[in-house]
Fold:
Amino acid sequence: MRCERHDAALSAGEADSVVQLFGVQLGGTEVAPPRVLHYPALLLITSEGRVPIELALSSPGRDRLTAVMSGYAAEPNVRSLLYMTDDPRVWRLVEAEAERLGISDLIHLQRIRIVPAQA
Structure:
């Protein structure tokens, strides 16, 4: 399985309209963000708001995770954020950062198991 990074650098004019439709600006209000958007693996849109789903098969690193989580937390229409991982280290990192940022109630973790395809 291969995950690709789909973040995109934007011009100042593009950012405002695209953020509302697809991605979140990295950093939220905690970090002075560059003009870069982060896109979740999947985005559920419900009548109550958005539920981004992040598939974390490897550790994004603390700084990157903080920027992504802060971006979601700063979006008023994000109702919850689901992190799915098969790695206990990623689980602990997400838990620790959510608590440090004070957004534990926003974050939901789900352990997954990757089963290799049989030929």
User: Anything to note?
Assistant: Confidence is low (pLDDT under 50) at residues 1-21. Residues 18 and 36 are 11 Å apart (CA to CA). The chain is about 30% helix and 25% strand.
